[in-house]
Amino acid sequence: MTIFFAGLITAAGKLDNDCVRVEGQPFESAGAAFADAFALSWTTFSTVGYGSTYPALGHENENSTNCLFITAICSLESFIGVLYSGFCGAILFGKILRIQSHAQVMFSDPIVIRYGSGIDMQPDDDYDDMLDKTKDEPGIRKIPCPVLEFRIVNRLFNEVGGEIIDATLALNRGVDTVSSGGSKSYDDADQHRIYESSPIGSDSRSDHRFFDKLRNKSQSPTMLDDESVTRQINKRIFSKMVLEASDHPFFKRVWLARHILNERSPLLTQKVRKAIRRCGGYWPESYNSYEGVHESLAFGQILVSVTGVSNVSASDVYAQKIYDFVDVNVG
Q1: Residue 301's closest CA among 321, 323, 320?
Q2: Residue 94 to residue 80: CA distance in whole angstroms
Q3: Which of 175, 263, 299, 329 ranks highest by number of CB atoms within 10 Å?
Q4: Which of 54-63, 72-81, 93-102, 302-311 has the lowest mean pLDDT?
Q5: Where are the alpha helices (DSSP H) in the chain?
Q6: Residues of 191-203 as b/e, b for ≥16 C-beta within 10 angstroms?
Q7: What is the Cα–Cα distance from 331 to 328, expressed in whole angstroms?
Q8: pTM over 0.90
Q9: Percent of the chain scored above 70 by pLDDT?
Q10: d(CA 89, CA 160)
Q11: What's the rounded Cα separation, in Å, for the pair 246 and 259?
């Protein structure tokens, strides 16, 4: 940029030597025209102030209108220089702010779903009346609902001021759906089967669209000719998940996140939620196995986000993790 404007200044100086002054002398008097023009260019671009090389003043030129070209060049270059320095400062500040706003935490790679009678079940107060009804009913095993667990570790646990104050953890279940003519193309059970049949490491979205096309072709081949029906719209539906402890006042080391797969859990199919409701809030015995728990799940992704305030910088920090269906370990 400075070399380009130095060439323009050289051309303007050759048109009128009196428009550019080098130590009070006309331009090219020292025999180094481009060097003097480059010195004038970088001082104008950086706005540090003119030194021995400067545009001629009004009293140094008999006809000031002859120097309008060099004046316009210097004005334009100084304006671009101010914009350049401003953009550089804004970009640098944004990069630093982005680094500072990222929470230094690590998420566990898999999600664990524990099931069986060894789970310590602590039901909500809303379930007390429902559970009391099943105490005296024969034939109903009081199996606690499975629990989804994962851990978050603070990387700065051994640093002074590395804690996260007023940390908040949020979980959302995400499902990709394909709508045809404004209606959903499959239910939760079909959604689960599609994710289960997708190979690990493959593109889940493309697999879903492929299975949806096959299902639509096999079920209603004659309706595909209708333009209003064949118009497919990709949608992603999010459902908020309830955690046992979604807030942490002083997150320093490890945070254990737990979500109970009860009748309110959006991770389960509608059929399983109804079965839990019939069992009075307990897990159905028919699903109390690895295959049963695995088949009861109906989700595509779990979005985890952590927000809080850094204790060392007093700035808001956040972190995010996305778990796919293949990241779930049942045991």
Answers
A1: 323
A2: 21
A3: 299
A4: 54-63
A5: 2-15, 33-46, 68-101, 128-132, 188-197, 204-219, 227-230, 270-278, 290-296
A6: bbebbeebeeeee
A7: 10
A8: no
A9: 73
A10: 30
A11: 10
Nearest-angstrom CA–CA distance, 269 and 222: 30
Yes or no: say if 161 and 118 are a contact pair by the CB < 8 Å rule: no
- The highest-confidence range among 12-26, 112-126, 196-210, by mean pLDDT, is 12-26
Structural contact between residues 12 and 71, judged by C-beta atoms closer than 8 angstroms: no
Please determine, for residue 125, whether its predicted confidence score (pLDDT) is greater than 60: no
Task: Give helix then strand counts, H and E, for the chain.
Answer: 9, 14
Task: Determine the average pLDDT of the residues in 41-46.
Answer: 90
DSSP assignment of 195-225, as one string? Answer: HHHSPTTS-HHHHHHHHHHHHHHHH-TTGGG
- With a pLDDT cut of 90, the percent of the chain lying above it is 42
pLDDT at residue number 147: 95
Q: How far apart are CA 29 and CA 219, in angstroms?
A: 89
Contacts of 178 (CB under 8 A, 6+ apart): 185, 208, 209, 212, 232, 233, 234, 235
Residues 6+ apart with CB under 8 A from 98: none
